[in-house]
Design a protein that fits this description.
The complex is a heterodimer of chains A (171) and B (175).
Chain A: H1 2-18, H2 27-30, H3 35-40, E1 50-62, E2 67-73, E3 91-96, E4 110-121, E5 124-134, E6 146-155, E7 160-169
Chain B: H1 2-16, H2 33-38, E1 47-59, E2 63-70, E3 88-94, E4 107-122, E5 125-140
Parallel strand pairs in B: 3-5
Antiparallel strand pairs in B: 1-2, 1-4, 2-3, 4-5
The chains are: A alpha+beta (171), B mainly beta (175).
């Protein structure tokens, strides 16, 4: 009997652990300077500092030997995915040292960039990309949504009625 | 009598079918746009079957040049909306194609012979577009995502957390 109680506790704890909301920005990534703070000059970042920013593509410019993307920044969650339901944190440029097909980066595409800070260009912070991730369009924003369903069952042969409660966790 | 019914039915079916030229259904040589860029001279005259999204249409004197972003093809030669190498090529089609009917977003599958590359600017980047002299082609309307499958429309589906979550479909209810 004591074992059953312990088991219940474990299951409840496991469920609670699963249901931690992922809508929170990653605290480690929040500590780094936001694009708007760098652009306004309130915060200074050393050149070549490594930053991880992400957000929505605004435009793509194909230059002769590289590609410059302008991005509207949003806070990132622990997996680095931009949380586009939160307020934007400014705009920035990222440069990739090769041609990128602009049709693959239409406005509104969700991307995350890891890169080196190169200073301000045209008033916006510029990153030289070391890594560029594109998030699938269908699961942008919060991918987490709890659901609940209720089932009622009945039987004959010695009347019995059952009620079931289900909890679904989308990850 | 039976033969007549069958004949009529086949006529109806033929009328309904899209008119993809049968020769387009056969795949061409397994060549990529990237290889055609690198080995433009060596691959001249090789037969390819490429398709993708139309990016622009340029009317020249005797022919029309259609710039296409290459995508993988379905079995019926129809270009898929995403994926693949996503590189640009030019489909050179004899004659005048009305740009009022041919516009970006539509899709094109062509079969023809490679004829070198042509450099067009994409922004400030000189992009070498392989040229395909189209012998057979078919144009498709812009991609439409397939409708939601009917089994998603569970009549007993009920989400008490709505409107926080997305509403599954109009008319769903909770009791």
């Amino acid at each position: 009997m004591r074992h059953t109680g312990a088991l219940c506790l474990v299951v409840v704890l496991a469920l609670a652990a699963c249901s931690t909301p992922r809508l929170q920005p990653d605290p480690a990534l929040l500590k780094q300077a936001a694009p708007a703070a760098l652009a306004s000059g309130k915060v200074h970042a050393p050149r070549q500092a490594r930053l991880v920013w992400g957000g929505l593509v605004r435009s793509v410019h194909n230059l002769r030997e590289r590609t410059r993307i302008e991005i509207e920044a949003y806070p990132l969650d622990v997996r680095g995915r931009p949380l586009t339901s939160l307020p934007a944190t400014g705009r920035f440029f990222v440069e990739v040292q090769r041609f990128l097909e602009p049709r693959e980066f239409p406005p509104g595409r969700v991307v995350t960039v890891q890169g080196r800070y190169l200073g301000l260009r045209d008033g916006l912070p510029l990153l030289k990309a070391e890594r560029l991730d594109v998030w699938p369009p269908e699961q942008q924003g919060s991918g987490w949504r709890p659901g609940m369903s209720l089932g009622i069952g009945g039987g004959s042969r010695g009347v019995s009625v059952g009620v079931g409660l289900g909890v679904e966790i989308g990850l | 009598m039976k033969a007549l019914v069958i004949l009529l039915l086949s006529l109806v079916l033929v009328a309904c079918a899209t008119t993809v030229p049968p020769v387009l259904l056969a795949p061409g040589e397994a060549l990529t746009v990237a290889r055609a860029q690198d080995e433009a001279q060596a691959l001249r005259g090789r037969v390819v079957r490429w398709g993708g999204e139309i990016l622009s249409v340029r009317n020249r004197g005797e022919h029309t040049e259609v710039v296409v972003l290459r995508r993988p093809l379905f079995d019926n030669a129809e270009p898929q909306p995403e994926g693949g190498e996503a590189k640009r090529f030019i489909a050179r089609i004899e004659g005048f194609l009305d740009p009022a009917e041919w516009h970006p977003g539509q899709r094109l599958t062509v079969r023809g012979r490679l004829d070198g590359v042509q450099v067009l600017m994409v922004g400030d980047y000189p992009y070498a577009h392989p040229v395909v002299r189209a012998e057979t082609w078919h144009r498709w309307p812009p991609w439409q995502p397939p409708p939601e499958p009917p089994w998603h429309h569970d009549p007993f589906y009920c989400d008490p957390l709505w409107p926080r979550g997305p509403r599954p479909y109009p008319g769903s209810f909770c009791w």
